[in-house]
């Protein structure tokens, strides 16, 4: 594993802190009513999908605009005419909404295809560098998310982690971008931050976590 790969994995681990534990709790809390669930996963493949598949025996349909990801259906979440109204018990949209050109339209479509009482399980970045360029369009505050989900009920939005973790993620990502000089400078910045981390960690308890976080965990229900 090269140094670039190491720092990429490190930044991913920091930025996705608590994500998998939260996802496991949300999947286990889905009401089944004794019947198999039908779920939609927006954004095919990847380790998040593998975890969802292991957590539930539900039927999971995958969509993606990229055929190379081998989704069940190649389509945009902004337009899903192949799905009838009220046809899914849950929709997973993990680390995808920032790549959608028309996010409000996408959320409206998700609401349409969810059954009454169906749940949206969503995660988005907030303080996080550009990625998957040029298809990285938005960052969302918790207030923007609440507004966009105004037609849902029981909306829960929580911070993924605190300020210091967000700073370390930004520093780690410096190492996998730019030319050699930029990566070396990024490595020096990250290592200095890593050395200070044990001393700075206790101070994070004094920082207000809702002011700076790498992202948000969101759940909402269709009324």
Account of the 3D structure:
This protein has 223 residues and is of the alpha/beta class. The protein has helices at residues 3-15, 19-28, 46-55, 103-113, 142-148, 163-173, 180-200; strands at 38-42, 59-64, 73-74, 88-94, 114-125, 153-159, 215-221. A seven-stranded mixed beta sheet has the order 3-2-1-4-5-7-6, with helices on both faces. Helix 4 (103-113) links the parallel strand 4 (88-94) and strand 5. The longest helix is centred in the last third of the chain and has 21 residues, at 180-200.
Keywords:
globular, 7 helices, seven-stranded mixed sheet, 223 residues, alpha/beta
Distance between the termini: 48 Å
Which structural category fits the helices and strands?
alpha/beta
Q: Per the principal axes of the C-alpha atoms, what is the gross shape? A: globular
> How confident is the prediction overall: mean pLDDT?
85
The strand order across the widest sheet is: 3-2-1-4-5-7-6
Question: How much is the radius of gyration in Å?
Answer: 18 Å
Approximately how much beta-strand content do the residues carry?
15-25%
SSE series: HHEHEEEHEHEHHE
Put simply, the count of helices is 7
Q: Count all strands and give the number.
A: 7
pLDDT < 50 runs, ≥5 residues: none
Helix content: 25-40%
What does the largest sheet look like? 7 strands, mixed
Compact description:
With 223 residues, this protein is of the alpha/beta class. Helix content is 37%, strand content 21%.
How is the topology of this model organized?
Elements: H1 3-15, H2 19-28, E1 38-42, H3 46-55, E2 59-64, E3 73-74, E4 88-94, H4 103-113, E5 114-125, H5 142-148, E6 153-159, H6 163-173, H7 180-200, E7 215-221
Parallel strand pairs: 1-2, 1-4, 2-3, 4-5
Antiparallel strand pairs: 5-7, 6-7
Helix pairs in contact: 1-6, 2-3, 6-7
